[in-house]
């Protein structure tokens, strides 16, 4: 056979042969691939779990739409209930239930105890779907039954506790006494109401009427739930018909009640707020999962490098036997692909099991039932990400494998192998990286945030790779220490194939993330516990009738003569149009979306409000009487694409009001002073019935008892106004934030777990070399303490360098998030730094220490003999 | 306990046995070995593979513990020392040359040779190491890492390292086993030259009878026992005709 025919014979090797050889090569088992598989499995598991859980929750939300909404559709409006015409219009379309919700105060009969409650008044038809569950066997109808002698309410037990009363006892609501007749254990449509600040109190509409709380301008949200006639009859008909029917209802509202100003929701999307939150959460957690997967990718690359290194002679032998580079690549690619597939399969399986476990543990805290099922999308999502990341990190080392020369068979010396894979493989690796980035960005709701995230990851990975090189470079050039332990440690750090790169890369991203989370958390906590209360008022007082403001002020001053009281007119309305664009059609950036959704607080003012600064245009004259004008918050105006001269249409009390933007102003939201996105010229809104919102700021020296005395005095004198203690609100927000940050921290730890896996893999790979080195040192007279010290120094130096860079990146990320996105002042926390340092050094010391323990225990003779 | 350096043998093994546990059960590696080496002597340990030569050498080095019998090396009762005590004795008194060199791959030739001196807190570690590398003909390769050196060069670095603290006892386990004939002979010339110049005791394992005949005494082992122990008149002169520089 000629040389030429040999080449062509090898060139002609089919995939079946490649597969056969590859599988034969795998006979040695998957030892050395455990970390590879674990890294892929962990990342895939996180992504699959997140997708499966999110699918389950989204399906749950959609399937339970009618229950959550309390009907097929709801219409809601603040201040004004439905007019007679509107009632007729609604009544003609199906069964209607009317509810009114508002924030108010419940008080003990002696007025000594009071609590902010979420009052909900319902009609006899309520609830159209599901049932209100009450403790004991009482029915809702009897629990809230009213006559002129006795008014009754069903209440959240938390309210009883706050007022210090028992079920069956009386309390004050507005101007009347009410019996707390039953305790609520479940409310079917609780999710559809606004974010709740206090315990629920359920009463009948006539009871609400009797409380005296329904004064003109009171912040009451009227909601009409409908069970559509056609939908009812179509219960057995196809679901698509039903949905079409719901959709046509929404269109009918727009057509027939164009200026009613109702916020319309239907069961297809019963809670856009919750749905959006779920979507964001899914995207955020997917990004974290992807980070974990990418960190695991370092372990994947390490494993493949080690695998190739151990197979050098085999590869050289194959090549000496005539295998072309392409065939060598294919053989090893198949083997690595099998490992990746095993990792992906394990990750997918766990990703389907974990949601069930989480659901079993946490289902009771969900506001609606999740519908867990085998989610094909979660399978696809996890598998695609897993395989792409595996390919991204394996092509390069495999590309180097095919370059191994058969001449290595004739060389005994150990030389450092450096080089580049062939061009096509480098291009393919780059293409996979770009495709991955594109997938992340395009599948995200906010392309901008996802793009920043991807860019951040690239920077972080690049920087930590650079740090690895830098530390190695410095160690190689550092003057040799006179202290032998340090000299050994520095020598190891600078050694080719040392641990530095793996440690730095594996822990860097996870630590940066945790530092960012810790610093964001501490800055937010600092803002809330120190800065906010320092500058914020003590009380918000809602629903002060215009005519009673002076009397209210006098009452406050009687208890606290030094009190500062600011007030502003307050109405609630809905943004309907920006210029000619209906708000439904506007695609707003996520940070500005809230302005367009639901009710907004609106105000008017003759002069520039305190805490605001006009940055464009000019404020109107105090006695402006011409075209209605409005001042828009500058940042939000920019995000929504409106400017001076544009018009804004709001619906207040069922009437559309259009005003022209005359100026833009910045608002210092953190001051917690009275601030509004939209402030109108007085002539625009002064005619509409409304109340005042006031803040009460007490001197710093005021005791808690005196502070409480102000609220009590107000409560006793004005039973219909609502007093909210700012500190309580901040604390309540703080406790929610705490839970969110804890969840984020847990999610972020997954990245660190992936890093720990990679670290364990890198240390395991280096273990044989380290044992041999220790054995030689022992033979040269080094004590165990000396070897231990050298190792600990090495770990501490690498861990410390990693932590320092992680602190830098984590701080930068937290600074950007806080100052640019959340508008909260960044505050550095020594605790966060200590956390990063101790985690980095601790993890490296833990894993390294375990390795060193084995090193020190190793019998020298087998190592010295076998070489 | 101090012994007179003139009377006490530097290696004093009395009824030493070594039994290791393998999957197949206990394996007796050494059986009742009694073996003494006076200071300054050169001894060749010869015997077929598996005869227990290396195990005996490792026991003398304090890298393996005897299961039975008493081991006293450089006047120290090894069976009464812990692992770190043995390491300290090794660092002070014993130099070892391995078949596979066992240089620390992350350190240059100079750093490898200086390391035992650094352990001893020697302020002139690097000057001494430089002089030793000069002595073995590697004065121009001081900053090379082990992978950048040939096998012969690596073994010369190992030799310089073994001698860096002027040990009383030099142990060599097949020092030429991984080297080609010519390089091996150069290393042996160097080894014996240094042994003579430094006045250390040399205990050498070899398969090579020609090499063994360079020693003053040849001890033969088989099946874990010493089967012959004979005095030898060393062959004079270098093996290669090239003396160490």
What does the model show?
The complex is a heterodimer of chains A (867) and B (245). Chain A has 4 domains: 231 residues, no CATH class; 205 residues, no CATH class; 215 residues, no CATH class; 134 residues, no CATH class. The radius of gyration of chain A is 34 Å and the shape is elongated. The N terminus of chain A is likely disordered. Helix content of chain A is 56%, strand content 16%. Chain B is α/β, with parallel strands linked by helices and 245 residues long. Chain B has a domain of 162 residues: P-loop containing nucleotide triphosphate hydrolases (Rossmann fold). In chain B, helix 3 packs parallel to helix 5. Chain B starts with 10 loop residues before the first strand and ends in a 14-residue tail after the last strand. The chains are: A alpha+beta (867), B alpha/beta (245). Chains A and B meet through helix 17, helix 24, helix 25 and helix 27 of A and helix 1, helix 2 and helix 3 of B.
Number of strands of chain B: 10
Residue-averaged pLDDT of chain B, rounded?
85
Structural class of chain B: alpha/beta
CATH names the topology of the domain at 40-51 and 82-231 in chain B as Rossmann fold
List low-confidence stretches of chain B.
1-5, 240-245
What structural category characterises the helix and strand content of chain A? alpha+beta
**CATH level-two architecture of the domain at 40-51 and 82-231 in chain B:** 3-Layer(aba) Sandwich
Name of the CATH first level of the domain at 40-51 and 82-231 in chain B: Alpha Beta
Beginning-to-end CA distance, first to last residue of chain A: 41 Å
The total count of strands of chain A amounts to 21
H/E series of chain B: EEEHEEHEHHHEHEHEE
**What share of residues of chain A is helical?**
55-70%
Name the CATH superfamily classification of the domain at 40-51 and 82-231 in chain B: P-loop containing nucleotide triphosphate hydrolases
Q: List the domain count of chain A as a whole number.
A: 4
**How are the strands of the largest sheet of chain A arranged?**
2-3-8-5-7-6
Please indicate the percent range of residues of chain A in DSSP E strands (runs of 2 or more). Answer: 15-25%
Largest sheet of chain B: 6 strands, mixed
Percent of sequence in beta strands of chain B: 25-35%
Q: Main β-sheet of chain A, in a few words?
A: 6 strands, mixed, barrel
What overall geometry of chain A do the principal axes of the alpha carbons give? elongated
């Amino acid at each position: 056979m000629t040389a030429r025919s040999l080449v062509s014979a090898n060139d002609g090797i089919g995939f079946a042969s490649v597969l056969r050889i590859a599988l034969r090569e795998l006979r040695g088992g998957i030892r050395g691939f455990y970390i590879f598989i674990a890294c892929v499995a962990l990342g895939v598991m996180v992504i699959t779990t997140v997708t499966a859980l999110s699918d389950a929750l989204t399906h749950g939300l959609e399937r339970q739409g009618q229950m959550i909404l309390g009907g097929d559709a709801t219409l809601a409006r603040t201040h004004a209930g439905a007019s007679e015409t509107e009632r007729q219009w609604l009544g003609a379309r199906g069964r209607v239930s009317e509810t009114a919700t508002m924030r108010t105060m419940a008080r003990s009969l002696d007025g000594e105890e009071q609590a902010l409650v979420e009052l909900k008044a319902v009609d006899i038809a309520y609830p159209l779907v599901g049932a209100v569950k009450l403790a004991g066997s009482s029915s809702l109808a009897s629990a809230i039954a009213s006559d002129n002698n006795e008014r009754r309410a069903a209440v959240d037990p938390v309210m009883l506790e706050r007022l210090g009363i028992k079920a069956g006892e009386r309390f004050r609501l507005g101007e009347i006494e009410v019996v707390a007749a039953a305790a609520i254990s479940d409310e079917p449509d609780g999710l559809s109401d606004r974010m709740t600040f206090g315990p629920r109190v359920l009463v009948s509409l006539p009871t609400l009427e009797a409380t005296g709380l329904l004064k003109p301008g009171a912040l009451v949200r009227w909601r009409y739930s409908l069970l559509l006639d056609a939908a009812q009859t179509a219960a057995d008909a196809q679901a698509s018909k039903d949905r079409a029917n719901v959709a046509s209802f929404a269109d009918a509202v727009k057509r027939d009640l164009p200026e009613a100003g109702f916020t319309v929701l239907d069961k297809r999307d019963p809670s856009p707020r919750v749905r959006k939150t779920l979507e964001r959460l899914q995207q955020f957690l997917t990004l974290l999962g992807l980070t974990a997967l990418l960190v695991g990718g370092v372990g994947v690359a390490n494993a493949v490098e080690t695998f190739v290194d151990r197979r050098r002679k085999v590869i050289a032998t194959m090549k000496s036997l005539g295998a072309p580079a392409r065939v060598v690549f294919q053989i090893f690619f198949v083997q690595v692909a099998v490992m990746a597939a095993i990792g992906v399969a394990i990750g997918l399986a766990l990703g389907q099991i974990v949601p069930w476990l989480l659901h079993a543990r946490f289902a009771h805290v969900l506001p609606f039932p999740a519908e867990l099922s085998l989610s094909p999308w979660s399978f696809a999502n996890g598998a695609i990400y897993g395989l792409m990341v595996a390919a991204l990190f394996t092509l390069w080392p495999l590309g180097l494998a095919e370059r191994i020369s058969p001449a290595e068979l004739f060389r005994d010396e150990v030389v450092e192998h450096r080089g580049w894979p062939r061009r096509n493989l480098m291009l393919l690796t780059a293409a996979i990286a770009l495709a991955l980035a594109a997938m992340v960005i395009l599948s995200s709701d906010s392309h901008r945030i996802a793009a920043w995230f991807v860019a951040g990851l690239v920077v972080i990975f690049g920087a930590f790779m650079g740090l690895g090189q830098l530390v190695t470079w410095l160690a190689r050039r550092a003057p040799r220490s006179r202290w032998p332990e340090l000299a050994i440690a520095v020598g190891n750090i600078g050694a080719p194939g040392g641990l530095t790169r793996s440690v730095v890369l594996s822990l860097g991203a996870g630590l940066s993330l945790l530092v960012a989370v810790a610093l964001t958390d501490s800055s937010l906590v600092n803002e809330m516990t120190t800065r906010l209360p320092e500058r914020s008022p003590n009380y918000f007082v809602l629903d002060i009738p215009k005519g009673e403001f002076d009397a209210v002020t006098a009452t406050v001053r009687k208890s606290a003569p030094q009190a500062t009281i600011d007030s502003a007119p307050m109405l609630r309305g809905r943004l309907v149009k920006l210029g000619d664009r209906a708000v439904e059609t506007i695609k707003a950036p996520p940070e500005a979306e809230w302005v367009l959704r639901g009710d907004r607080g609106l105000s008017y003012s003759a002069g520039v409000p305190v805490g605001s600064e006009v940055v464009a245009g000019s404020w109107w004259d105090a006695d402006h009487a011409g075209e209605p004008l409005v001042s828009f918050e500058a940042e939000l105006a920019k995000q929504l694409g409106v400017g001076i001269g544009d018009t804004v249409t709001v619906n207040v009390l069922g009437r559309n009001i259009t005003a022209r933007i005359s100026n833009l102003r910045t608002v210092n939201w953190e001051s917690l002073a009275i601030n509004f996105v939209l402030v109108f010229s007085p002539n625009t809104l002064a005619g509409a019935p409304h109340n005042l919102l006031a803040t009460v700021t007490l001197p710093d020296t005021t005791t808690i008892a005196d502070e409480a005395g102000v609220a009590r005095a107000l409560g006793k004198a004005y039973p219909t106004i609502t007093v909210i203690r700012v500190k309580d609100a901040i604390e309540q927000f703080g406790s929610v934030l705490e839970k969110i940050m804890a969840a984020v921290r847990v999610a972020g730890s997954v990245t660190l777990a992936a890093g720990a896996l990679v670290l364990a893999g890198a240390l395991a790979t280096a273990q044989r070399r380290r044992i041999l080195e220790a054995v030689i040192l022992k033979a040269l007279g080094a004590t165990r303490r000396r070897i231990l010290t050298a190792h600990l120094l090495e770990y501490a130096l690498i861990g410390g360098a990693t932590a320092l860079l992680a602190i830098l990146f984590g701080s930068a990320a937290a600074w950007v998030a806080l100052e640019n996105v959340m508008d909260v002042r960044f505050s550095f926390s020594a605790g966060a730094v200590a956390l990063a340092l101790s985690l980095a050094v601790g993890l490296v010391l833990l894993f390294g220490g375990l390795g060193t323990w084995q090193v020190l225990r190793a019998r020298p003779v087998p190592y010295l003999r076998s070489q | 306990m101090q012994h007179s350096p003139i009377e006490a043998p530097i290696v004093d093994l009395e009824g030493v046995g070594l039994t290791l546990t393998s999957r197949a059960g206990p394996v007796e590696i050494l059986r009742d070995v009694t073996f003494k080496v006076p200071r300054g002597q050169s001894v060749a340990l010869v015997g077929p593979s598996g005869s227990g030569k290396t195990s005996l050498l490792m026991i003398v080095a304090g890298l393996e513990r005897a299961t039975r019998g008493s081991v006293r090396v450089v006047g120290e009762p090894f069976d009464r020392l812990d692992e770190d005590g043995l390491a300290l004795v090794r660092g002070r008194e014993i130099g070892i040359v391995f078949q596979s060199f066992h240089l620390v791959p992350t350190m240059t030739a100079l750093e490898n040779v200086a390391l035992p001196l650094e352990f001893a807190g020697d302020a002139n570690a690097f000057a001494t190491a430089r002089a030793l590398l000069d002595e073995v003909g590697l004065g121009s390769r001081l900053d090379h890492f082990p992978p950048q050196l040939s096998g012969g060069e690596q073994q010369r670095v190992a030799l310089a390292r073994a001698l860096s603290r002027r040990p009383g006892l030099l142990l060599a386990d097949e020092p030429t086993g991984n080297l080609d004939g010519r390089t091996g002979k150069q290393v042996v010339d160097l080894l014996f030259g240094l042994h003579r110049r430094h006045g250390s005791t040399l205990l050498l394992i070899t398969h090579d009878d020609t090499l063994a005949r360079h020693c003053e005494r040849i001890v033969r082992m088989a099946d874990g026992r010493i089967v012959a122990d004979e005095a030898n008149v060393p062959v004079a002169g270098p093996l290669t005709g090239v003396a160490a520089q």
